[in-house]
Amino acid sequence: MDLIDNERGGYRFLSGIPPYSSGVVAMPGHEIVHVTLRRPVPYREGFRIIESRLAQVGRSRQALCAIALRCPKPMSFDGFASFNRDYRALLEEWELLVDGENPIARTNVSPVHATPEEPVLYSYAFTLPDDAPLPTFVVAGAGDVDRQSLEEETIVREGETTPEAMTEKAQHVMNIMQQRVDGLCVLLSDITHANVYTVQEIRPYLSSAILEPLAGASIHGIHWHYARPPIEGLAFEMDLRGVRREEVEAPA
Description:
Strand order of the largest sheet: 1-2-3-8-12-9-10
Helix content: 25-40%
């Protein structure tokens, strides 16, 4: 993974795959602000909300650096690829790509309760000029697939949800989180939010596979979202962020 400058956006991003980058970190003189929508909205409408907010704070579209989506149900690998083509086309319309690379970090999961009828925008993050005392960053969501190649044969312990299998899945994803934190040149101790997405029991491996690797950041606990990863067959996903400004926005 390469750490690439996005001068227009005021952040660096860790190279990923065409649908999303692996994570973003604010460049010196900037910080990342994270915004959660009190009421998620259809994701294309959400982009209009983002544009309005960026205009209010005097930032261009390129300041958008991360989003989180919620989808109605897990998709097939082909269905996920189709959605990602439409999503990437929107990013191209916004002129967000950097030399053909997608800089935007993303998480996309399917909640069991309050399930949306269509893909919706749940949260987003953008950069502002500011001298934050610590680096601010967002690590993109990663699920229990090997090499992040999004192919069925790469699912870790495919079809298994025993405590042993879930422990292995969680350890695998935590390893990806560590690699991305290292790639962004930040520290685990800088994490302020660790999100877990699964409908499987987490207590058997919560301490050993998640909290212990988080080390000092475990003082903040974890946020367990009762949700499934966006692709059929996956059972565990995580993302992370380290920010000092968390906002809640109520769309009109």
